[in-house]
Amino acid sequence: MTENDFNRRDFLKVLGWGGTAVALSGCGNTSIEDGKETVTSYVTLPSYVIPSISNYFNSTCAQCEAGCNIMGRVREGRVLKAEGNPNSPINRGRMCGLGLSGVQAHYNPDRVRQPLLKGEAITWDKALGVIADKLNGVKGAEVAFLTGNMSGHVQALLGNYMDELGSKNHFSYEAISPAVLRAANKKAYGVSMPRYRIDKARVVVSFGADFLGAWVSPVHFSQQYAQFRKGSRPEGRGVLVQIEPKMTLTGANADRWIGVRPGSEGVLALGIINALGKAGLAIPADVAAASKAYTPERVSGETDVTVEQIEKLAALLKERTPSLVLTGSAAEGYAHGSQNAAAIALLNRVLGNIGKTVEASASVPFPQIAPTVGNRASLVSLNDGLAAGKYKVVFSYGVNPVFSAPAALKFKDNYAKADFKVAFAQYLDETAQAADLVLPLESAMEDWATVVPEYMAAPEGAGSAGYAQMSFRQPLMDKLYPDTRGIGDILLALLKQRKADKYKEFDDFYAYLRSAVLKNKVALGGKATDDDDVFWDETLSKGFVPMKGIAGAVSAKASASDLRLPSATADQEYPLRLIPAVSASMRDGRNANEPWLQESPDPLTTIVWDSWVEINPKTAAKLGIVEGDIVEVTSRSGTIRTQAYLFPGIHPDAVSVPVGYGHEAMGRYAKGVGANVFAMLDAVFDKETGELALNETGVKISKTGQRVVIVKEEGPVGGSQAGKKKIAVQVAADKVDLSKEV
Amino acid sequence: MSVSNLLENWSKFRHTHPVDDKGHPDWEAYPSDIKWAMSIDLDACTGCNACSVACYAENNLPVVGKEKYSHGQAMHWMRIERYWDESAGVGEFDADKGARFLPMMCQQCEAAPCETVCPVGATNHTEDGLNSQIYNRCIGSRYCSANCPYKVRYFNWYNYPEQEKVWPEPLNQQLNPDLTVRTKGVMEKCTFCKQRTYTARNNAKTEGRPVQDSDVQTACQEACPVGAITFGNLFNPESQVAKQWKSQQVELTKEVQDKDEKEGNRLRGYRILEELRPYPSVMYLERVRESAV
Amino acid sequence: MQHILRLFILLVGLFAGAGSYAADAAPKLTTPDDLGPQIEQPIEFPHFRHAGDAKDGGMQINCMYCHTYARRSMVAGIPPVQKCIGCHQSIESVRDKPRIQKLFEYWDAKKPIPWKKVHDLPDFVRFNHERHIQRFYFQQDRPYQEVCGYCHGNVKAMTVAQRQKPLTMGWCASCHQKDHPVSANSTETGHGPNDCFTCHK
Amino acid sequence: MSKRYLLALYNNFDEAEAVVSELRNSDIKGFDAADDLVVKSPIEHPEVEEFLGEKPVKVQWFTLGGALTGGLLAFTLIAGSQASFYSQMKGGKPIVPIPPDLVLTYEMFILGGVYITVLGFLICAGLPARRSPLYSAKVSEDQIGILVKAEDGSVAKLREIFTKHKALEIQEEAGR
Amino acid sequence: MGKDIREDIAWAQINKDVLKSLESPRKLYWVILLVAIAMVGVAVGCEIYQYNVGLGVGNFDNPNVWGLYIATFIFWIGMSHSGTLLSAILHLMHADWRKPIYRFAEAMTTFSLMTAGLFVMVHLGRLWQVYYALPYPSERWVWPNFQSPLLWDAMAIFTYLSSSVLFLYIGSIPDLAICRDNIHQGWRKKLYSILALGWEGTDRQWRNFRITYLTVACFLIPLAVSVHSIVASDFAMSQQPGWHVTSFPPYFVAGALYSGCAAIITLFIILRYVFRFEEYMTLPILKKTVRLTFAIAMVWTYLNCIEFAATWYSHDEAAKAVLIEKATGRFAPFFWGMIFCGSVVPFALMVKKWQTSIPVMFAVSLLLNLGMWLERWMIVAPTFSHGYYPWTWDEHMWPSMVQWGIVFGSFGWFTLLFMVFCKVVPSVSMYEVKEMVYHRSLAKKKEEQAVKEELAAKGAN
């Protein structure tokens, strides 16, 4: 690899994948075939490549923002599978289904293969020329760049580009990001994303944080959860209580799932504080004052949680410390979401968890590569700007707002108002279809990048306090399509249009990245005397580099003074609360065209290849709905038709529809599957942060008279074992001896 | 050939393998020093489906699509089952204590009901304790599936690679070359990642040492975010799986475990449908729930 | 009596006919002289020149010098072009032979040579070169010509390699059922695995 | 001296019986009732066999031989192939399990028995046979035929006996 | 109540009457034949489609891996048992009334076995590799698995089919000789003279014929029992709830005889009508067959009760669940249909007046056949959709038109074979009817003689 004339991509080339490469059509042909297939052979081959034996190259997963470190299994020039990097503090060698499906994003048959100008294939030179033309004479303030979460050197380049354009309009949008939580955390603990230590807690009370499914860094939290559940741990087996109106994967794994009335999470938190006080825990005066009015009886009435339950929970929290209270998307998606989050954060303060299970995290020492995290408020402001005709040229990368913006925002119409829209896209999704110019991206398995995760997990042991890391994404195989380019390369080319001489030393993004990394060798754990090539190779082979991060500090000064928690008001016309459910595999729908994800059943309903609406059996009985009824879910902003699924894990006042389905474009596996729940969300905003409140939509449900057989993994008896107690068994914790287990 | 073999093998194979008449293992007769086994901690399992997707990736499983899925023709070797509490009665579901998840795949039974009934001998017991499935030998009578108590055998109802075009170019480049893509009319099932155990055994043999835990992980085990799956050689007392089986007092060739007869048994290892005597090689650990809350 | 005789002849004839047909239909276990089909390769590689005995003008190169992966991988592998060039760039005497020129054409164009597979097993078969080389070459210490030649035939006398052995399942199994000494100077014997699953994937 | 064949047809078994007993008691030169007399009937008639005298039937021996061969062959084939099929183990059962093998042994026992019995029948009954020198379709309809072979000289005598017992028809042909 | 066969019927008349059935058929024959061919065409089309696309087109799913094919397979196997019952068992019992009707019953055995055999093929996922199931010495040294009941099945069917064909053939040699003697035109002449093997009815031939016929009959009886008990072992030897039942072999055998008898009644009536065989297929014979059917129906009902009771009072919860599922679940209409057709309808056979009523018996026999088909389906399907493992229970699987088409076509195939047979081989055994008439007249004579003697003795006194 250190040979000068050796281009790394050479051996990643797919060469003659006959017999040894893939065994297609396994059976049938039983004879020896002479001379029909070609042997995999190479011109040159590094000594570590042995045919039929896989090589593993470290890289970083791009399927969600957690940024797990992965190893790509490469054989005969093809990447076959993503496996976890065992040394990574984030995922510790593990993977989730979404991450594993990354290879299907790479090999996807529906990828865009060449630049498209209004649907016509053009060359890259022409495409870049068109961009230069269109930017000609446009003021910086008239250019907007919409991205999702970003970090690393691509972000640095983007920053440079925006500077060159003289634009400050970089909008970072994520449809399902925990944006309210960040703000609330900042207020309560002083850091927006502290390290949660589920593994150290004896009790975890999670207000709708689906940390095993789709929340922040699920694989990392799953690791912590595995520790937390170990009976042989010094703290003993941990207890998980999940409080949320719609059961998430985490709720399904809780010792106690509490189906709270939607929106009343903050009330319940204060009720628990109140009960804790009654149980004899010392409560700081301001908190005591704030929670004084929330007697268990009142709280019980508002939240639908029994008094007994609240008291039991308080007793458990008092007895078993340290505990950890988490705020998740289910609690923050309201107009008073920030208030909810603040009330819940008080619990951590009261219970003395801050500093114990809520730890300070560190951020990378280079601000230009630190993650820009997306939120929904930025989309709203972009939308407002578009509506006002402020932006002439709009770039979008890695986001699909036409699909995921609430219909009430009328984003699609506003987007059309911009003169020239450029989408950097891997698929021809809804946004790319609405764009004028589509530039095809390389997949994450062909591209170079660095990634700094927002949630900075740290390895065990000393030195974890100031730990920060930067992960590397490197090509795992040769480009499938010669006419695709990496985002870094495109940005570099665009920069060269503006300032050719400043960037002329960099042939491509790889060169830029390499030089940027080598320049900061020392900060990245190397010595100044290290050979550049050796250092670079070692870094790549590790897949990530630890850095001495800028450590933050957590404070326990959350104030309880300005809490205003509204009581729930009944909506006569739209009596049910719609909860858009975020599933671990589908998330916001950007991975909907990966068939493994479509075919892997939703863990709770086991439904595949379609969306559904979850209804509590009691509500369904009232409405006369049975499983498989096609129903119309109507809000003030829109209507969707989908199949009804009776689900015990949802509050009777709520219904839930998964997000990510209902694509009208994107590819053969995503198109036309299910209904898009984003399209029917009301435009209600969190009062403090301006975030779109996802759970604030009231709906009504009506039957259409049609009925289908739901396509799902579970059989007609549902989750019943039909009296067979020896299939999936559950025992009470005090009935087993967990402490001596191996 | 056959008569001399008969005479030669007669005495060798008169006795049953590996379960002799007394109902406990005749390990002496076991032809190798490896018995692959698994244990799955349901208390850790979160039901996230990562194992199942990993299995799709590793074992070239076809994605059949909605239409065929609706006909029950899904090809997931590892399926995640989700059960509810039924405190109020059968079919009356109660979500207060969450759900229970159970990853189900071929249990690699020691006395597998599927093996004896295959008319062509396409499924046999291997010397390392697996229940093999020889795709090319299969004629598709589906008798094995009919006789499987767990219903974990999956039949190729269609010609997925060629006629159904399940792997359109370039999706087919992802296929794992270590095992074939099965064509229509063939039964298939979980193999405990045969290609991985094969490589592990091969490497260990080349190095002249027994197989260790660190040599091999199944794809599901490797992916599992909570590490609920343990896999290894049950005959190696140093292996994690053997330790777990031992500490849970689960013995491979018993249909009723001694510990289950005892009062106040504080262990949680069990095997599914043990009473049918297939002697499954997968031990599950009961899900635990705190009752104080 | 006539009837009996007639019937007898009929039956015997039937059995004999069916038997001889069956015997004929089954591929023969070893076919020492029956070479497989001739396969056209991009370059007519003279195995006899490289691996042949010195008395026949060969250079007696060990098979595993070029097919170096055989001892550590499932597949024996075809050497990269680099390997050919490694020697041939310093062998001036044959530089202008047409085959060598062709080789250099590939090298200069940086293109891999599209060799055709000669010993091509069906897709559902797993054959492991490493295992066999380890067992017979390293442990049992047999000459490499014998070890490799058992399946590949007398390659050192061929130009382009041709399949000489049937490579059928029965042929594989005939060897797997034999007892072989476990090492060069051991009386202990063992045979190949019997499990279908070992070779079928 | 050349032989001649005579076929006489009768209406019922009583007449035929009378003819046969008379033929047997008669002393005609060159005619032996045991060898040269064949009775043909449209139905199976035990009395005919009775008055013709005991002639042992040997089909049973074929049956016995066939059945035993079939059974033995089956067991050897099955057990032998199980033992030599790479000794594949099946679901905790022995390589050569006796009880299941007996099922097929039993089937082959029957198969062998039936096949060889039928073969034995063909051999014992002399089938397939060429047409005998004299045959009348009446025999397969409703009449009983008595076919005799005798020397030229005794034809008249035989004819006389046949007519005496009200033969419906008498055919004659030179023999070989 | 019609008349029985006349003792004084002329033997030549028998020949004439029966041979008439071999003459050129009426138009209706061709119409039915064409319909049968069309039905076969449907099945062949379905099979080609299924062969090309895969078994999935039959709408199978993971638990329901066997559909109608295996149920129909058992149905046809079961139907084959009637021939053996009539020709072998009743032969040994010297029940002479079987003689006019056993020939077509035996033909039915052969053809239903041939139909059943096709279902084994249709059912396979890889029909083109079916030779893997044959025990032939191959270069690979690979053998089928002789422990598999499915292989026993194949072997039993082969044995039964070939034995039945031989039995049918041996039994009809004398009749073929009659045909040879009476038909002198065209291809038939050649065919019959070859098939008759030069049979002349000599005493030597008859002697060996009798013992052979008896021996083969003796073999056929245990063979028939073993065939259907082996089919039962396909289920009883497995471990599935509802299948793993000790009483399955006798239950299957009883069911087989039952459906066979029902089919005999159906065909009896059809042949009697079509060939005007009123003289031979007389109502007293029908009556006896009907009574026999009723007896077997009761045996079957009894075994059914035994099976249900054993399941109900056992501790096998899974088997009990399957039973409850059968009786109350999705299959309830079919289950109760089976009980109605199999156990209630036969009581119509008890009514004396109906026993000889052609239309009533025709309708009843069709219902019985339907009931027996349902029985087979109710054995196979519910266990699949309600096995040990609740998660895999499936209530939605319904056989697709491809499956139904092939099942439908199998009836056409059977009809086709049977109709061709009826025109080639006499469907009433002429020589045995002659024997029957002869023995009956002898017995009558003897009786008259005895009466006379008695009278004479009385007179003497």
TrEMBL record, chain B:
GO terms for molecular function: 4 iron, 4 sulfur cluster binding; metal ion binding. SUPFAM superfamilies: 4Fe-4S ferredoxins (SSF54862). Keywords: 4Fe-4S, Iron, Iron-sulfur, Metal-binding. Residues 36-66, 97-128 form the 4Fe-4S ferredoxin-type domain. The keyword Iron-sulfur applies. The keyword Iron applies. It holds the Pfam family Fer4_7. This is Tetrathionate reductase subunit B.
Automatic annotation (TrEMBL), chain C:
This is Uncharacterized protein. The lineage of its organism: unclassified sequences, metagenomes, ecological metagenomes.
TrEMBL record, chain D:
This is DUF3341 domain-containing protein. Keywords: Membrane, Transmembrane, Transmembrane helix. InterPro entries: ActD. Pfam families: ActD. It comes from mine drainage metagenome. The lineage of its organism: unclassified sequences, metagenomes, ecological metagenomes. The chain crosses the membrane at residues 61-83, 103-127.
Automatic annotation (TrEMBL), chain E:
One of its GO terms (cellular component) is plasma membrane. It is a multi-pass membrane protein. It holds the Pfam family NrfD. The keyword Aminoacyl-tRNA synthetase does not apply. The keyword Ribosomal protein does not apply. InterPro entries: NrfD-like. The chain crosses the membrane at residues 28-51, 66-90, 111-131, 151-170, 211-231, 251-271, 292-313, 333-351, 358-381, 401-422. Its main location: membrane. Keywords: Cell membrane, Membrane, Transmembrane, Transmembrane helix. It is found in: Cell membrane. Belongs to the NrfD family. This is Polysulfide reductase, NrfD.
